[in-house]
Design a protein that fits this description.
Blueprint lengths: L3 H5 L6 H12 L5 E2 L11 H12 L12 H15 L8 E4 L2 H12 L5 E6 L4 H8 L3 E6 L10 H7 L4 E7 L11 H11 L6 E5 L14 H4 L7 E6 L12 E4 L2 H14 L5 H11 L4 H22 L14 E2 L20 H12 L1 E2 L1 E2 L9 E4 L4 H16 L3
Parallel strand pairs: 1-10, 3-4, 3-5, 5-6, 6-7
Antiparallel strand pairs: 2-8, 7-8, 9-12, 11-12
Helix pairs in contact: 2-13, 3-11, 4-11, 5-6, 5-10, 7-8, 12-14, 13-14
The protein binds pyridoxal-5'-phosphate.
The site of pyridoxal-5'-phosphate has 13 residues, from α5.
Length: 397
Amino acid sequence: MISQRAQNVQPSATLKVTGRAKELKREGKSIVSLSAGEPDFKTPGYICKAAIEAINNGQHGYTMNPGTPELREAISAKLQRENSLNYDPSQIICSNGAKQSVGFALLATVDPGDEVIIPAPYWVSYPEMTRLAEGTPITVRTSFENNFRLTADQLEEAITPKTKVLILCSPSNPTGSCYSESDLKALAEVLRKYPDILVISDEIYEYIVFEEEHVSLINSAPDLKDRVILINGFSKGFAMTGWRLGYLAAHPDIVKAVSKIQSQETSAPSSISQAAGLAAYTNDLSEVHAMRDEFKKRRDYMVESLNAIDGVDCFTPGGAFYVFPDISAHLGKTTPDGNKLETSTDLCLYLLDEFGLAVVPGDAFGEPNGLRMSYAAGMKDLEEAMDRFRKGIGCLL
Ligand SMILES: Cc1ncc(COP(=O)(O)O)c(C=O)c1O
């Protein structure tokens, strides 16, 4: 009854922990969850107001498939103003979230059997979207030592005649790691040797960077622009996850192909969300920066607390709202009940069952020696979470 395509897709590996957390909560247990992939803030008021006005003004109909001309113009202006990237509005397609943009970009470019290089730890959807496009995900494990950045040598080694796409995500979910200009220049140097390889550059966490300015791949290698599919959206920086609004910018041929797919699968995103997105990109960013500054305080607290625990090693991520500590020193240890914790999933289930702490195992992201903690939670929850984590780790033998 079920297609091979659907059977090939793995259910989200994060569900094991989040499903169990919900079960325990229902049973009345106290659970602190650092598993969320979304800001805990509310969407800024001026954006909500624009959406309400759109409703009251009767903006209730379908919009053009790639999005309203006003929003695409605002995105084009934003890319020019903030990123020094020159995209005509016709090169932009708005979607129901960056997730849809990544999925349709893969459907538009990958043929059966094509290989897609995905640095690990990766966002869980990349390999599964690649499978849905009948491509083959080639995951390349990056290292804690290099703050999980793919190196030029690793890229070169992974490339085969079947390579079609490289997916880069900076700042990264799940590690918070950011590529610097020189990292990107080194990768570009390799890509220049293989003119048929496209790059999906997922920059959805662009506004949540702490010390350095965000660097777009294309800024580091303007000559690769026609081969790069730039992905961005409103979910993370503007705390708009539920509004479902993202976009891609690319070469006109790619845009045409994605537009065809979008027109048959979903059409444009909600007219109301597009009005909200227009307000987001045509007002000042002070509220966005205030959220970023709050995330930075939390990041500093998390990194310091984690590194104070024996056998836990956490680099300081440059962006997003995740930390991804190395917990390998505790794998293979035994719980007070005599259970051996072989994997990061075992460790996370132990923390959940015994200490009511929900964090996501690195196994879900292709990195067995780590785990992801989201700090999109208030300081009180973070303090309680770190207390539980410290106790849980401290009990292991
Ligand atoms: C790396 C990455 N890309 C894309 C998305 C999708 O974002 P959106 O809510 O715009 O679909 C997410 C959301 O978790 C993400 O972490």
